[in-house]
Amino acid sequence: xxxxxxxxxxxxxxxxxxxxxxxxxxxxxxxxxxxxxxxxxxxxxxxxxxxxxxxxxxxxxxxxxxxxxxxxxxxxxxxxxxxxxxxxxxxxxxxxxxxxxxxxxxxxxxxxxxxxxxxxxxxxxxxxxxxxxxxxxxxxxxxxxxxxxxxxxxxxxxxxxxxxxxxxxxxxxxxxxxxxxxxxxxxxxxxxxxxxxxxxxxxxxxxxxxxxxxxxxxxxxxxxxxxxxxxxxxxxxxxxxxxxxxxxxxxxxxxxxxxxxxxxxxxxxxxxxxxxxxxxxxxxxxxxxxxxxxxxxxxxxxxxxxxxxxxxxxxxxxxxxxxxxxxxxxx
Amino acid sequence: xxxxxxxxxxxxxxxxxxxxxxxxxxxxxxxxxxxxxxxxxxxxxxxxxxxxxxxxxxxxxxxxxxxxxxxxxxxxxxxxxxxxxxxxxxxxxxxxxxxxxxxxxxxxxxxxxxxxxxxxxxxxxxxxxxxxxxxxxxxxxxxxxxxxxxxxxxxxxxxxxxxxxxxxxxxx
Amino acid sequence: xxxxxxxxxxxxxxxxxxxxxxxxxxxxxxxxxxxxxxxxxxxxxxxxxxxxxxxxxxxxxxxxxxxxxxxxxxxxxxxxxxxxxxxxxxxxxxxxxxxxxxxxxxxxxxxxxxxxxxxxxxxxxxxxxxxxxxxxxxxxxxxxxxxxxxxxxxxxxxxxxxxxxxxxxxxxxxxx
Lengths: 331, 172, 176
Prior knowledge:
The complex is a heterotrimer of chains A (about 325), B (about 170) and C (about 180). Chain A is mainly alpha-helical and about 325 residues long. Chain A has one domain (about 70-330). Chain A contains 12 helices and 2 strands; from the N terminus they run H-H-H-E-E-H-H-H-H-H-H-H-H-H. Chain A is globular. The model of chain A has no long low-confidence stretch (mean pLDDT about 80). With about 170 residues, chain B is mostly helical. Chain B is flat. The N and C termini of chain B lie far apart (about 70 Å). The termini of chain C are far apart. Chains A and B meet through helix 1, helix 3, helix 4 and helix 5 of A and helix 2 and helix 3 of B.
């Protein structure tokens, strides 16, 4: 019984820690994105509040909380109110399976540095990431606005087209690690990261997660110059903030998934594992911001074309070749 | 304990499906169905098949229901103008279902936080599942995949672009 | 090769934006850094004086007629020697669009634009400036010009007595 309670307490502590870290990271990623985008466009970005604008996230939160929480007339009120929470929640839930450091030995107990080391952690991640679209879609539909509906439809189509290639790109990784558990996948990359072993799968996964998290160049669901704000057109105040924060939590999650699956997780010379892990996550996040500062938005038919006619056949081919090579090596 | 949870979840699933069938608003129906799938996934987990539970969520909730929603929204099947709601009563069944699924999940977690012991039931891991699927039932899997291929080819045939026939229609 | 062109076209922009990331921003951070506007910048309007220290304005109303937003108003008056001046002269800077038409219209170079652009204020009424606020002690852009030394009624010199001025024509005389 005490063992059970200890386990529970450990899980709660880890959950709380991760919750705090992820939320503050998301808040500061917003600032980082604004600063980096600003510098890429020869501006300064926010720099009024505190040194280098470091208090800006706090000010943003205060502004969002004190704004009016507007519910449009004729909207599906309850769904409208629930949807933003769904987005932020699903984004947060994914982090449960991400291992950020090798297991620690404390008080003679092996303490895994992951909230819950599921043996099907990868499938859990896939499931939760595909659930994330529900918040967007239901929010967009419940707003009773044509722009929101268009944004919702776009994000649905995008998710449907890119989830397949994402899943297919992950199978070679699972084949080499021989496990769905993310800890085992990181362990299998001790010699060299999966980036070297599966470069094509890495590229496909990179493009797919960019599309799935609605990052530029795939940010059609919230394309400002076509459909106002997309699915969050009608949202204001902290509900808009939840959508916004959910997007940046997603950025952290996808960065850590990319790190775990392809960049070798916590493995790295000299520095402690957790530092390596955070560095890699931040680097991936920077790359996504960099892409936002660089690339124009795709057209919608180009997006569908890329997903169905390029990425999925490539992913299937990659899977076939990888499986054949592994079989040949084995037998 | 597990069997009680199983029956509760079964009831929740049936109720959700019933509400889905009787619901007039297609988007609400999809949400009820999603709840039913969650209950079903939990039932699979209780039966010792976490892999199937995960696939229930990934495939049915994450892909097929999303496809349903996509079609509902593209065809604008959902009523655009919401009737003035009678208030919170309409939301009681949905909230009750969601709350019971939530409570069942929490109970399962509290029963076995680290998922170390897999209960009295036989536990099927990914490896055994894969061996069974592609060993014992390989023929069935192949037949089903052929069926899906036929369906895909048929759908392509029905939905392909027919410029010639359209011209003929224009002439007549 | 199409594919190499595509890869280059995808990756080169990344290199360029990375370069911009390490370039100094073009922004001038206004309250701390101020740019010096060029001398002919059109901002605050002033009334100048001639080299003798008298007001240049002769209250001809041309500026207020030229003003597209009607922000200039004045009252004309005359001294005993016939010199015209503005009894009061008012510019409403809350309405002024700084188009410079008044300065172009002014025959005596009295009204001029200056580069002083920091005139925003929370109280719009304080932007209505009177002659005392507008008059400066200098001559503004043209330091030598003195209207009454070139033309006009005999205030400084008798009529026709200015160096580049002909004697007044007698309209009643028949001889050309």
